[in-house]
Specification:
- There is one protein chain.
- The chain is mainly beta.
- It contains 4 helices and 33 strands.
- It folds into 2 domains: 57-324 and 334-347, Cupredoxins -  blue copper proteins (Immunoglobulin-like, Sandwich); 380-513, Cupredoxins -  blue copper proteins (Immunoglobulin-like, Sandwich).
- The protein has helices spanning 21-26, 170-176, 216-221, 500-504, and strands spanning 14-16, 33-35, 57-59, 64-78, 81-88, 96-99, 104-111, 120-122, 144-150, 158-163, 180-184, 194-203, 227-230, 237-241, 245-252, 259-262, 267-273, 282-284, 286-289, 294-300, 304-311, 339-347, 387-397, 408-412, 424-426, 431-438, 444-448, 453-458, 468-469, 471-474, 478-485, 491-497, 508-513.
- A 6-stranded mixed sheet has the order 13-12-15-20-17-18, with no helix packed on it.
- The structure holds CU-O-CU linkage (C2O) and copper (II) ion (CU) (2 copies).
Length: 514
């Protein structure tokens, strides 16, 4: 079956940008309109329906994992085609790294690209200094860098991921295929019939076997690829047996696309988001993952076929009040059919599956088998707060440096990222409360490295259980309050918008804990 998963961008003829400010207004009406170069309609449609594959897996043993990651160009299997693009170790996604709390992870990153890169272990609670999770390190073409990450013995279990973090090319390198999953195992395993890693990404192919270039406009909006992929595949299928329990680790590795996921007809329980586990899992029907978020999910299967779908989510527009047409700024449009990400076929019989699905970790557990208890999650709602801070995420005209011709500025507290400047200094060991405000007309997913955030106010109300995230969506015109315990590590690191085009455009700040 050959059909585009999403409505192509070429349906849009023009884009209206709001808040262009005086320069555009002075240019006289015409300056308000941005023409989007009409794209070729001869793009290759993705090949859908193949059997879901799993990234290769590297597992620690004896408290250690040593990995060589080679970031390089090549021919990769993507959306069922051969595509000339970038990946780690010849695959998209790169290998899954499976760790345990207390492990030492050594990564030898070899840069075979023709541009600088580096490595970030998103969500891991590890030191940001030296050869740790240090995003200020730059690995030049041809160079090798030895990273070393020591996970604390009480590191939260969960789903994490790795990707490049060289400022200015993060979105391009992830869009090209440089990302992979990291899993930190539970202290006590959960009995499941299968465990699957589902890395969701999106990209656009140009019809000649390349990843399409994106325009400056798409960067400002946050690029959304025309096709949404799971483990590099377009709507792959997989099978399960009815009445069993599977564990799915879902990562939103899209540069800017929000995922509002459903799997109608199957029973979903959320074990955790981003980092750690809830004390008790909660039943969910819809799962909201901003760019960078992850879900740790239990799926109890019922006979039939079920499609994992991503519904349209309105993340706002850069157009201000001057609405013209259907808020044109995302590939996914209101009213568009939900994108089919993957198709699960559940056989009614208890006969073992003959598919190439992952080997059972524990044979045929009853879905009713109780879950092992997890340690009570920390709760900062009653903690003594040492400092309150305001962080304002802005995408507006005329702010920041070098803005000409209606270019938008992407800032935090009015400033664009500068690696030499420290924006926020925090006392090691203290708990702070940060109020994240977003006066702009589009959502910005806020991400803090190293130290996870507890959401204490969202949508004007307090969550009724500890909610830990390392990416927190701050809606357009909205506000979120988080608390952070700056424990275990000191050093310089960053926070930023995880619409990675916005990060590359400057929406990032430097934090120093000391
Ligand atoms: Cu996944 Cu600093 O990012
Ligand atoms: Cu990160
Ligand atoms: Cu943003």
């Amino acid at each position: 079956m050959h059909r585009p998963v999403l409505r192509p961008l070429s349906r849009r003829s023009a884009l209206l940008l709001g808040g262009l400010g005086a320069a555009a207004t002075a240019a006289g009406g015409a300056g308000l309109w941005w023409s989007l170069a009409t794209r070729s309609s001869s793009r290759t449609a993705p090949v859908t329906g193949a059997e879901l594959s799993q990234p290769s897996e590297l597992r620690s043993s004896g408290g250690r994992l040593e990995v060589r990651l080679e970031a390089g160009p090549g021919q990769f299997q993507l959306a069922g085609q051969q595509v000339r693009t970038l990946g780690y170790n010849g695959g998209i996604p790169g290998p899954t790294l499976r760790l345990r709390p207390g492990d030492l992870l050594n990564v030898r990153l070899a840069n075979n690209l023709d541009q600088a890169t580096n490595l970030h272990v998103h969500g891991l609670h590890v030191s940001p200094e030296g050869s740790g999770d240090n995003v200020f390190v730059m690995v030049n073409p041809g160079a090798v860098h030895e990273y070393e990450y020591r996970l604390p013995a009480d590191h939260p279990p969960g789903v994490y991921w790795y990707h490049p973090h060289h400022h200015g090319t993060v979105a391009d390198q992830i869009f090209a295929g440089l990302f992979g999953a990291i899993i930190v195992e539970d202290p006590e395993p959960i009995a499941v019939s299968a465990e699957r890693v589902l890395v969701v990404s999106d990209t656009t192919l140009d019809g000649a076997g390349n990843v399409a270039r994106v325009s400056q406009m798409e960067r400002m909006l946050g690029r959304e690829g025309e096709i949404v992929l799971v483990n590099g595949q377009s709507n792959p299928g997989f099978t399960a047996v009815a009445g069993t329990r599977e564990r799915w680790r879902i990562i939103n590795a899209c540069v800017a696309r929000y995922l509002s996921l459903r799997l109608d007809g199957q029973q979903l329980q959320l074990l955790g988001m981003d980092s750690g586990r809830y004390r008790t899992p909660s039943d969910v029907e819809e799962l909201f993952l901003a760019p960078g978020n992850r879900a740790d999910l239990l799926v109890t299967t019922a006979a039939g076929s079920a499609v994992l779908r991503a519904a349209y989510y309105d993340r706002g527009t850069m157009a201000g009040m001057m609405g013209q047409g259907p808020g044109p700024r995302q590939t996914s449009q209101p009213g568009a059919a939900a994108a089919a990400l993957a198709t699960l076929r559940v056989a009614g019989s208890a006969a073992p599956s003959t598919s190439s699905s992952p080997s059972p970790l524990v044979p045929s557990p009853s879905p009713q088998a109780p879950l092992p208890a997890v340690p009570e999650p920390d709760d900062l709602r009653t903690a003594a707060v040492a400092a309150h801070r305001q962080l304002t995420l802005s995408s507006g005209a005329g702010m920041g440096m070098g803005m000409g011709g209606g270019m938008m500025g992407f800032t935090i507290n009015g400033r664009e990222f500068s690696p030499a400047r420290t924006d926020t200094t925090v006392a090691a060991g203290s708990v702070e409360e940060w109020t994240l405000t977003n006066p702009s007309p589009m959502d910005h997913p806020f991400h803090l490295h190293v130290w996870r955030m507890q959401v204490v106010e969202e949508g004007g109300r307090a969550p009724d259980r500890p909610e830990w995230r390392d990416v927190v969506n701050v809606p357009a015109q909205g506000r979120v309050k988080v608390r952070v315990a700056f424990k275990d590590f000191a050093g310089r690191s960053v926070y930023h918008c995880h619409i990675l085009d916005h990060e590359d455009l400057g929406m990032m700040g430097v934090i120093e804990v000391r």
